[in-house]
Write a structure and sequence with these properties.
With 545 residues, the chain is mainly alpha-helical. It is built from 21 helices and no strands.
Amino acid sequence: MVSVEKTAPEDTRPSGGLRRDVGLIGLMWASVGSIIGSGWLYGAEKAVGLAGPAAIISWVIGAVAIVLLALVHAELGGMFPVAGGTARYPHYAFGGLAGMSFGWFSWLQAATVAPIEVEAMIGYAGHWKWAQHLQHTDQTLTASGLLVAVVLMALFVGVNFFGVRVLAHTNSAATWWKIAVPLAAIFIIAIGNFHPSNFHSEGFAPFGAKGVLAAISTSGIIFALLGFEQAIQLAGESRNPKKDLPRATLGSVAIGAVIYVALQVVFIAALPHSTFAHGWAHLDYKGISGPWAGLATLVGLGWLAVVLYIDAVISPGGTGLIYTTATSRVSYGLAKNGYAPKLFTRTDSRGVPWFGLIMSFVTGVVCFLPFPSWQQLVGFITSASVLMYAGAPLAYGVFADKLPNLERPYRLPAGKVLSPLSFVVANLIIYWSGWDILWRLGIAIVLGYLLLGGYAFYAIGKNLPDAPRLDFRAAQWLPAYLLGMGLISWQGGFGGQGHIALWWDIVVIAVFSVGIYYWAKATSSTALDIERSIDEVVVTDAPAH
């Protein structure tokens, strides 16, 4: 085995050395600001519709799952304090083919967030008469709604083109607003509108365990809890990463989980019984297209509803701007690493990657066609996000074996157990999204391989100087993993053929995941190749002189 220095090389830092001056609060605040996003506007209503009051359990399970994934990222973030680490860890561990794949998963995740924020804005806008024709009664976009969605996507892109990015950057005021509004909704609505009987009058878990599990992926629970990685991205600037990274990671997820569980409890308890008298699957009241604002109006808090309608424009709008920016930067990074045409690296006079922005607009518009409602798109984003995160536990197992002496500011306790467990949990979340979501994700993955793979082979065939080095041996497990997950979903009971019974499907996923985990470890890149991959990425990150 190749000897590796005990201290991480200085040039693994994004721009030649970062100042370690970010404390615990700074790390935690970065993640909390990302976790408390637009997901709170719909999560409680969608979850209770799928699981009944037992949606509270769904939130708890979702929080535990996110904590497991976050802890693995905490160690990797300390080892490799580089931008975009989530997509890069698999590249280090398994070479170019895996790097290209997880880079594409990262792009899919980023590219689909702006469209869902647009759908959230349109959903709440249904409160006003002029916007009521934008959605059907099932909250899918009408033809005019699709036109408005396209205009909003164009607005996001236009703002980025002109370089006006004030709303696209997290700051203290925005974070306070994003936290203060849901907290206000919790306490103000709960006062005088808390009915304990709501938790059992129509059954606590009317849809059984299947409803509880399905709600985790398809109601927006995991989508809402995503964002913990913001602290990980600041690992290289943490004053005390060994202590602060796990605290910030766990603390931010804990804060987010407490707020979301409280939102779910209050939402259930505040509803008049008449709104769900025909069962939680038929929950209905005036203004339900904007669930929290509609509920505030229903219980006589019209002024609070106004605040919530304003928040439903500010929060999703800001997030949409940020992710439109992020999408163009991910495509820029893919091109810099040789996976996409150099056209994606072209910038205008303001330094904006203009072609990447245009493609983010096109992708956003395309997303509205197969996912014309918030809930339909949230399952896709959850699956793409968790698929992206799933590469971290696999990379962790490789680094534990191949780079045992590399400095780890934070070391995950019982990592050899928690790492494969987190991979199992990630695949369960993907599976619970359901076949109806996963076959669409599969098409997107195939499209990515056609586009990126086609360009990679073209670059290799033309012997271009930045042609990627595709390591098929180290990534031989990847096709089996993706096809296997699709096959299990197709045969399973979450939108599939139903040939694998509930609980047995969990066993199948667990066994399959453990097999893939150790297969990936056994065929991973050598320590020398891992070091070379790290050095190559450092070169692409180096600032121009």
